[in-house]
Amino acid sequence: MRTVLVIDDNPAVGTALDLLLGLNEIRTRIAHTPAQGLAVLAREDVDLVIQDMNFTADTTSGAEGIALFHAIRERYADLPIILLTAWTNLETAVTLVKAGACDYLAKPWDDCKLVATVENLLELSQATREVARLREERRHRRKLLDARYDLRGLVFASAATERVVELACQVARADVPVLISGPNGAGKERIAQIIQANSAVKDGPFVIVNCGALPSELIEAELFGAEPGAYTGAPNRVREGRFESADGGTLFLDEIGNLSPEGQAKLLRVLESGQFERLGSSRTRKVKVRIISATNADIAAMIRDGRFREDLYYRLNVIELRLPPLAERREDIVPLAEHFLDGKAVLDAGARAALMAHGWPGNVRELANAIQRAVLLCRDGIITAQDLGLAGARGGSVRIAPEAEPDRGMIQAALNKARGVISQAAAELGLSRQALYRRMDKLGITVE
Questions:
Q1: I need a labelling partner for 185 at 20 to 30 A (CA). Which of 11, 164, 202, 286 fits?
Q2: 403: confidence class by pLDDT, cuts 50, 70, 90
Q3: Are 169 and 149 in contact (CB under 8 A)?
Q4: Cα torsion at 255, 260, 266, 271 (round to 10°)?
Q5: Higher confidence at residue 410 or residue 109?
Q6: In 306-400, which ranges are E strands?
């Protein structure tokens, strides 16, 4: 049941709030001194605190309430607190709200307003706990992934990337073809390397073929090899094909959607039988190769248009992993940027905000290039937004996933977009105004 702790030296206040909140199915715990209130918090689960500002007779300074507020905030950083007093001091109210208090109500209070405030804050408190739980679950899953699998140093923080990595590790041991789809520069090759590193052929070769760069007249020689003089301009020695080079390992067919129709037909044959002949030779050869392919194209549309063989697609796509663009996994942006920096420089708040606001049409590859350029242009090892040289935000919203916690860059980006208007920035981040104030105070962020 939802629980509210009332800390007030006047027993009548506790009784009144107990009756009022009880009508809304909210349990009330009552303490008459700051020490009693902190003791209740230590032994019980409390969702919200309503605290008085003065506990000694004839005292109106609010110093006792300020001390209690900071004591609670130090121990329970995300616990919602409503300040309640008969002696309203606007300056004190503003200071404590900026420090994380959720509201400041004067006695006698308005029942409807108080109940509405409590209900809203209890809902927010529940959401905050859920975010914390999801974040802790994600940290735990990441530890398990790191312990069980070789992630090839992949840097990520988003749930979207985690899902792809986890599935890649699960299917790695199965000897079935995998198709990795996603935009250019998103990191498809790194996912392929993770599959190879955790497969039964992890000690074998990892051979990459850029299918879009294969001339149609040389596809057969490139994939399957050629005997000396097998075609015009052929070298006077045996040319080993990529399938032979990958024997006992993994063949990564990058941009498979760009393979010509002739190449598709030849590839289908070897995938069906595992056998091939070198160009200019009648000897049948057999290899054991794990096939991983990748594409940024809409293969289903290509099949409908007759540009890609449906039978080949089903041969390649036993398991499909879709890697989202960087714009759909924004929690990865700052960790990736710091990884690319490798200690050569640091990002200031403006640079982090610019990174989060950018649309990243070039994905991780564009991010790596932007960081490399910024390292060369920055002064004193501090990268600013100007050093990054990014265009205005093309991705629009900086709204975060429900299970994500906004970092300094996300908050600064939202504030910049809202031109310092706290309510607009909070809405952009999916937070309440008070929750945003708390995070700004914790991170030392101020608005001019």
A1: 202
A2: very low
A3: yes
A4: 30
A5: 109
A6: 319-322, 346-347, 382-383
The alpha carbon dihedral of 407, 410, 413, 417 has a sign of: negative
Which range marks the domain in which residue 93 is found? 3-129
**Contacts within 8 Å (CB) and 24+ apart, 231-239:** 231/279, 231/280, 234/280, 238/278, 239/278
Q: How many CB atoms lie within 10 A of CB 88?
A: 14
Residue type, 56: T
CATH of the domain at 251: 3.40.50.300
Residue 116 has pLDDT above 70, yes or no: yes
Nearest of 187, 159, 163, 181 to residue 321 by alpha carbon: 181
| Alpha-carbon torsion, ordered 124, 128, 133, 134, to 10 deg | 90
Asked whether residue 34 is assigned to any structural domain, the reply reads yes
Residues 274 and 398 in one domain: no
Same domain, 93 and 124: yes
What 3-state class would DSSP assign to 196?
Answer: helix
Give the C-alpha separation, 69 to 75, whole Å.
10
Q: What is the pLDDT of residue 89?
A: 62
Query: Which amino acid is residue 141, in one-letter code?
Result: R
Within 10 angstroms of residue 314's Cβ, the number of other Cβ atoms is 11
Contact 318, 355 (CB under 8 A): no
**45 CB-near residues (< 8 Å, 6+ apart):** 3
Judge residue 199's burial from the number of C-beta atoms within 10 Å of its C-beta, 0-12 exposed, 13-18 middle, 19 or more buried: buried
Tokens (6 digits) for 445: 């962020």
Angle between helices 433-443 and 408-417 (to 10 degrees): 120
* pLDDT for the residue numbered 306: 93
For the stretch 48-99, pLDDT in tens is 999 988 888 767 677 888 899 999 988 988 888 998 877 656 667 677 777 7
Q: Is 281 helix (H, G, I), strand (E, B) or coil?
A: coil
